[in-house]
Fold each of these.
Amino acid sequence: MRYRVRHRTEYQYAEPVLVSLNQACLTPRDTAYQRVLEHRVEFHPPPHSQMAWTDSFGNRQHQCCFSEPHATMLVDATSVVDVVAPVRPPAKQAPAWEDAVRAVRNHAEAETLDALQFVFDSPYIRRAPEFRALAEPDFAPGTPLPVALAAFAARFKREFTYDTGATNLNTAIDAVLHSRRGVCQDFTQLSIAALRSLGLAARYVSGYLRTIPPPGKPRLVGADASHCWVSVYSPGWGWIDVDPTNGCLVTDQHITIAWGRDYADVTPVKGVILGGGAQTITVGVDVEPLPDPDPAI
Amino acid sequence: MDIFSDYPSAPDCFDEARADGPVRAAWQRLGEHLAALGGAELQRREQAALRQLQENGATYNVHGDAFGGDHPWELDIIPFIVHESEWNTLAAGLAQRARLLDLLLADLYGPQTVLREGLLPPEIVFDNPAYLRPCHNLPAPGGRHLHFYGVDIARGPDGGWRVLGDLPQIPAGAGYVLENRLVLSRLLADLFRDSHVHRLAHFFQQFREHLARLSPRRTDAPRLVKLSNGPQDVTYFEHAFLARYLGQTLVEGEDLAVREQTVWLKMLGGLQPVDVIVRRIEDAACDPLELGGPAARGLPGLLQVIRSGHVAVVNAVGAGLVESEAILPFLPGLCRHFLSEDLRVPSVGTWWCGDPAQREYVLDHLDELSVLPAFGGNGVLPAAARSQLAAAIAEAPHRFIAQERLRFSTVPSLDGERIAARRLFLRTFLTLTPDGYAVMPGGLARAVESHSGAHEAVASGGVSKDTWVVSDAPVSEFSLLPSRGGAIELSRGGGDLPSRAADNLFWLGRYAERTDAMIRIARLLLIRLYERPEGAAMPHLASYAAALREAPPTSLNDEEDYQALEAATMAFLFDDQVPGGLRQTVDSVRRVAGIARDRLSAETWRMLNRMELNLEEMSRSRRFVAGDVVDMLDRMLIRLAAFAGTSLESMTRGHGWRFLDAGRRLERAVQILTLLQKSLIRPPTDHELAALDDVLQIADCSITYRRRYLSSLHAAPVLDLLLTDETNPRSLLFQLEALADHLDHLPRDAGAVGLSEEQRLIVRALTRTRLIDITRIADLSPSGERMELAAVLQEIIDLVPLLSDALTRHYLSHAHPARQLDTVRLGGAGPL
């Protein structure tokens, strides 16, 4: 699938911001199943300086500085990406989940050593027996990891209610476990906590999701949103992306921006400001499917 | 006589004074010297040392308790002596360790080969909160992470040195070493001179030269700043002391700004680029944008400037990663890997529970070991709950370490008049030089009464000792210190004053002058009350009480009212709960002086400190006899006069002095206006003459007046002397003219036309004062009032806050505190 994604984040300040430094993590990365064809991030008003670099997880980060008073800031990211669904051997032949735990714990290769950094606690996520208990029903001994993950995601979708009013950015995963309500941010971080508590390497992936309009209705521009999901390491299979909000393994409907240990590593837009008063944020995301490229290529 | 041969040291450990070898002679000389002085004299000198430390304001806070306040620094007069032959061997080992940790940091924040090759378990890095991912691949200044490094060491029972802990992040303590040396070398001057003690100055000189070389800009005069958490930091004394000693500008986060990938220092004359930052703030607080944490601390955007190569920060941000004791068991292997050498100075015996074999040893020896969290935290875990401890280790073994309880060597310490044995440990420091790491010839020795383990000892603090590395031959006497009694180091030319420092000096001037005015009023009040014959009416005294407390005068009718006035005056002086009272004002003096400390000479600081000690002493005694109180107030006035005198006589006429003096002038103008407003607008009938006399006394103008007019008291000449006589340094006009002169000499924005707002205001105040018709305003109306005087005074008083605000806005404004931008969670996308 080929997509054009436009992601606009606009800040309006009640009083002028005198100086601000901002950081954006909005550049989709190339993966085994994704190719970025076009991308640009623009800031308005034009910043006084701007710089980009690749962070320790391989994500592209942008930073910019405004040193004149400004009442609004717009971060406008546009990308064109090709995504294909992962092609994998039958899930039943995959390694058991305990093998994945063991492989990461022994970290004998570069790949497993890299995965090891996603086993531990991180700013928003800690491991605990109660989180482990959430995942355990789907992780019977010897269950192949992709089978267990698919079952866990499906059950997660059944047991948890999508509710934008139930939580906010600061809601701890403990509260989400208790209330069983939240948004994909909450579901992703709680799932990661559960999987890490089993000893698996699980990372947080930020990105977008293609939304399909109801039959007969036109696709609404700007109605889409940023999204996030979980990625789990399996020896031989590599990273398996799973979406607990939608109860499925990831195919070619998900567009990956970045990954890290949790939200703190891949916050889309953050910053430090002087002045400004109250802030109003408006986010618009538009995921537009483009005609497929020449299938012969 | 050798007083160290039979002092009661413990049998099961090494003793510093009795060890054989060349050091023996030095201890013997020290012992003879101390014996000759005698116990009583030793104690007297120790008290003198403590007094000097207190007056210098040497404080610390060993527990890092933000609310515990400052503790005075304690110094044992008996130094710890070590011979250079032994010290040099130790120093070579510590330099090796610094090289090793530097290489380890470069690897962990770079290719991480030691993790891939299994030389260091990755859990020690990945699960350690001190591993800061945004610092990965960040360029280190000159390619080195460790530039100034502190290390805690102690000697085991076998006489061999062990490393107790590494301080790569904030190597605190070097300033205390200097302070101890300054005090002790004076106190034991003869002995110090004869003992061939290696001087410290060369070491600090090497550090200073090293920092200058790190500047990314090619410039002859790189701008170096020391970034501090400010006066609430437990070692702030040292920040200011070292900054002054090394000629660095002491700054806090809000003094700096990041713009266009450069760090700038906010100066009076505008922004100036910063080349090198010596940080005394922890890794995680360095950049609130990338590392999180409260935005008001640290410097948002700092990492990006480092990434672009436009500033050098030492030590490299993230260096705290190698502080974890979990690394200690792996250092010997890492040393062979990086340096192809054996580790020369071993660490205190440490086991990391993440390794099955080491864990097994720990669980088998729980009673003999101290168990600690591997990644910082709450110190030694209580040994009592053994089963709980074992369970906690089993839950997350890689998060625990255990250490042997090393028995430190004993060292002679002064305990009252006798010599007692204390346990010794020591922090010393290394700086990078073009020839590798150089070790300070000395260190911060500590003597503790007893201890169970290394960690416990370091946490307990103990009493400090100077460390003398002695030579058999004379040593170099190179010194970095300015000669004693030197000038206040305030300004190195026009724009070189950070705005915040100017702000502090301005308020120091204001508070000091306010203190002076308060004392003069209170002193007069107490004297008058003291002299007052029983039953005599002195209703005018109420107006001075009003001038003190900015309240309308109360009436004084009967004896009880006079008693109440005296009680209220005492409370005003000694009760620290009275808002705006003397205690609180003196506290403010001390607070702003504390912040401006790197710009004040030691003498100035001592005078202010002594003034506060006087006041505190009497407040604590709770015996307020009028005569004693007046004496004490006199002493405080002398200290204030000395403070004013040193600033007048020894400060260069830079912007710092101008702000200090502008603060003083502005406050004195306010005080004159308030005093006249309260006392001479409606003087109580029949007490006009007494009031005029008192006003002259409070304003310190009696002598001038009497010389001019002999004893004939009239309102007009009094008002002329206090308001419009520009030759009288205590008149309003004198203050306003001085202020106008200061404002004319402050830096102006390039291209600014005409007068600034504050200049306009001062011209208005000056003109109004010059236009005063003294005979008219001195006239009493038939109802006994001076309404014209009231109007003039009010008009000028109203200009003062406007003036102060305009000045602050123009030069001193901190604008707004930095804060984090709100962020959006990823969550809009609902189920398919």
Note: Chain A has a mean pLDDT of 92.
Amino acid sequence: MRSDRGQSAPLGLKVAAACGLLFLHLPILLIFVYAFTTEEKSFVWPPPGLTTQWFAATWNRPDVWDALSLSVRVAAISTAIALVLGTLCAAAVSQTRFFGREAISLLVILPIALPGIITGIALRSAFALADIPFSFWTIVLGHATFCVVVVYNNAVARFRRTSGSMIEASMDLGADGFQTFRHVVLPNIATALLAGGMLAFALSFDEVIVTTFTAGQQQTVPIWMLEELIRPRQRPVTNVVAMVVVLVTLLPILFAYYLTRDGDQIAGSGK
Amino acid sequence: MTIAAAQSNPTPAILPGSGGMRGALSDLFWRRPKLLLLLMLLPPLLWLGIVYIGSLFALLLQSFFSIDEFSGLINRQFTLKTYGDLLQAANLDIILRTVTMAALVTLASAIIAFPIAYYAARYARGRWKALFYLGVMLPLWSSYLVKIYAWKLILAKEGILTWLLAKLNLLWLLDGWLSLPVVGGNSLSVSFTGTFIVFVYVWLPFMILPVQAALERVPGNLVEASSDLGASPGQTFRNVLFPLALPGIVAGSIFTFSLTLGDYIIPQIIGTSRLFIGQAVYSQQGTAGNIPLAAAFTVVPIVIMGFYLWGAKRMGAFDAL
Amino acid sequence: MTSAVSFKQVSRHFGSVRAVDAVDLDIVPGEFFAMLGPSGSGKTTCLRLIAGFEQPTTGSISIFGERAEGVPPYRRNVNTVFQDYALFPHLNVLDNVAYGLMVKGVGKAERLKAAEEALSLVRLPGYGARRPGQLSGGQRQRVALARALVNQPKVLLLDEPLGALDLKLRENMQEELKSLQKVLGITFVFVTHDQGEALSMADRIAVFNDGKIMQVGTPEDIYQRPNTRFVADFVGSSNVLPPVFVQRYSGQHRWGSLRPESIRVSSAASGDGVAARLVGTNYLGATTRLALDADGLRLHAVVPAGMALPAEGEAVMLTFNRDSLHLMDEPA
């Protein structure tokens, strides 16, 4: 649809699109207001007063810090694993045509295409069958599995845009396989990998469904929030954590968008 | 090192290998590209194949085990008894409720998504296009739990929605709706209506993106041609736009349908005490300890999605993903 | 004297497709050699076999007397100018040109100096700091050339390097490439599907069809004395004459070829010649191309523009010098 430059949309369409976008954004903005409310026991609107005291209260909660630290560690390690596996897979699938590449694409996408509860319970029952106790590593195992796809999608898109003759040109000029990877392939896919890594981090940081099945007593930030939603202890603290979580996931998404904005346009479509 | 001296270039035509491990490995990979391919594929295939597919098979296998009703221990012998349990009226009720909800959520998402996707694809340009893209992308990637939490705040009895309706003198409407059977309840946050709204909200971006992708591929002059030929806007929508956007809608519905089928957190936080498939799976494997029945329950969305994907593929929906 | 490149019964099969089929080829050091043929004729595969991107299924290839089968591209002292130039988008022009020296371990100062020199050679001095994306098609092509030449290759391969350029630029580059090759004395192997380009630039031409070499020779050989109907037709669209026709004029029952510009057209209704009818005229600027029908045989003639022409449909008489009728090797 390219031929409508300058033509303006019908009013009804404008209103419907604007309402749709407001519907998407207002609830998130509401979180920011509630983080400052003075009300402790209920969700009353409008807030009876505004205060910043809950930021200090949250700061002094060790359980929040523990959850945050666990989430960051899990996301970092899962992202690292997903980067390696996703890049290898994307390179293999896009550089060569071989029997079964469609099946491999499907295999990579499956952990995110099937409902999270299936991935979660499958992993849990497999851990039970194999007598693997829950630990930091069982969480990472689950997260890395569904993070592969975002790295893979970003890397595949970039490989597709990278001219195949560039690798031949490098070898022609005397670079062996390793030099070609180091001096040509890596620089060309670096921003796509960074974007994929950012998204994988955000995905892992936010994941709750699979995590409820693969974590034992440990709490990631989403698990902590889920607990608070089901059995609220101190609502204002939850409000503050919710706001911080929104900000923390926002930044990598914006950065990933910035990195892939000319062309790839698929940064987030892997979620 | 001047190039003009190349006439009497004494260097050999074939250069010696660089030697050492690196040179040897590089030559080996060049000679046997299949070996390199295998080495590249091995780690991801081992990971996904063993960790993921292995787990899925283990799960499937367990759905053919049964639970001993007296001891609560799992009897590892092949039986279809668990699938028999799945077909009890109470469980069928859960399945029907979930599928109905998924269908309604999909329909509502498509209706809300269309104007946004259409505007972004046909009218938004340059800076506005980027803004629209981020406007969909940011809610998509915002924390799932925070989004649910935001709706808990909105739908609460003392929350902003009640306040707004009171200001507009429309509380009677809310009370009337809540007094209806099935969709009503004590407040919106403990009703199916609330569950429905939150589902639509959380999965909406997944519908907008593929519909927009499908509409981007519709040439703009097609719409003009249609109105040129005397079609009313309604006819143009029905006969031109909708059929062309349909693959995108179907692609989006794969997400909205599948995600609703498998979710257990939204109905747990905002909804009634009546269960959805996800909650049934969760409680069967958790409190009830009946892993076989939980496994059998997960087969339901897998089978439904299998048929759904098969149908979607036949409609060409995958091109819009 | 050893050949710069020598193919002995080289074949390259892709599944059941014989891209290159039992080719013998010798390229003389220092010559400008063109591989000419329609797309899919195997010329590009031959180029890739020399570069090392493809390996022969059977047969042997040597470069300056050294066997090249199983030698990876990065160990061949042969460089390529790619059809799409394949410049590295993440490096500036100078680093692109210096790439080959960099991976060989040449020190930074030395390699940048050599790269700057190579850029001067292709008349792009001072362009080193730009990105490939900021250059025009012609400039990119020169950078690709400099990037290959800086390595002092024994053989320079050019894969349709002028294909993406517009006509004017292409003509300039043809002259430049030709003089560059003379100055440097490097063996150039040039792939093209444009017969005019091959004829004007090459010292020798190999005409490819269907994975085989049909004819190898100087441009004059190829143009004046095609050995098969394919070559006659592909290189400058000669008139291909059937054996029956040829026998009447030369006494030999063989296929023949006659260049369009060798045919004289007169409006005389009688006399010694081939009776024909003018069926079409095509104005080409300096010349006019005539389509003629000689008793069912379609012929073309090229006459200087401005010559008085009979009207279309009228009878004409065709004459030609017996010497210009070339007999081809292809069996009747």
Note: Chain A touches chain C at residues 163, 165-166, 168-176, 179, 183-184, 187-188 (CB under 8 Å).
